[in-house]
Design brief:
The chain contains eight helices and three strands; from the N terminus they run H-H-H-H-H-E-E-E-H-H-H. Helix 1 runs antiparallel to helix 3, helix 2 packs across helix 3 (62-80) and helix 4 (90-100) crosses helix 5 (103-116). It has two domains: 21-79, Helix Hairpins, CATH 1.10.287.990; 90-198, Iron/manganese superoxide dismutase, C-terminal domain (minor pseudopilin epsh fold), CATH 3.55.40.20. The protein is mainly α. The structure holds manganese (II) ion. Residues 27, 31, 74, 156, 158, 160-161 line the site of manganese (II) ion (MN).
Length: 199
């Protein structure tokens, strides 16, 4: 099985002015594509050749794991963004309010975690093993699937995600991130995860 670079769910310039066309051109067209190409090279002739990304992530190590996790994480990240993400509402709004007191405080805590993450990685909202919402920060190519968590929302905090638009200011990028979060997608992830955990 050959893994393919998924298309962006919007035009390359759709997230402007928050994320530029140039950033998406490099981030999706070069970085994400490179993870997929390296993964395809690394799994050739191995036990991982016919496994899904998620199966690889939970069982592999080394470069196979890293490239598979980066392939999955980026595909998820693109879906977490949208030029018209809508508003947070419904069950997820209630769950976030219960856990973090308000959407504003959730966003503040998530931003603090993302801004404070040392080096490359990903900041996530997940459902943890016991079905509770949690903000977690992961290094490099780590994945919630390695920790028994279900991902709901992610922010890529590798420098390549923001350096063209914001140079060294990760904080400016994280502020912009909230303007383009696809809450509809995140709400759907929460709904599916809740069903799975209840089953
Ligand atoms: Mn990235």
């Amino acid at each position: 099985m050959t893994h393919k670079l998924p298309q962006l769910p919007y035009a390359q310039n759709a997230l402007e002015p928050y994320i530029s066309r140039e950033t998406l051109d490099y981030h999706h067209g070069k970085h994400h594509a490179a993870y997929i190409n390296k993964l395809n090279d690394a799994i050739k002739g191995t036990e991982y050749e016919n496994k899904s990304l998620q199966e690889i992530i939970t069982s592999a190590t080394g470069p196979v794991l890293n490239n598979a996790a980066q392939a999955w994480n980026h595909a998820f990240y693109w879906q977490c963004l949208s030029p018209a993400g809508g508003k947070l509402k419904g069950d997820l709004m209630e769950a976030i309010t219960r856990k973090f007191h308000s959407l504003e405080r959730f966003e503040r805590e998530f931003s603090t975690t993302a801004n404070g993450h040392f080096g490359s990685g990903w900041t996530w909202l997940v459902l943890d093993k016991v079905g509770k919402l949690a903000i977690v920060s992961m290094h490099d190519a780590d994945s919630p699937f390695r920790h028994g968590q279900i991902p709901l929302l992610t922010c890529d905090v590798w420098e390549h995600a923001y350096y063209i638009d914001y140079r060294n200011s990760r904080q400016s990028y994280v502020n912009a991130f909230w303007q383009i979060v696809n809450w509809e997608f995140v709400t759907e992830q929460f709904k599916q995860a809740s069903h799975r955990q209840a089953a």
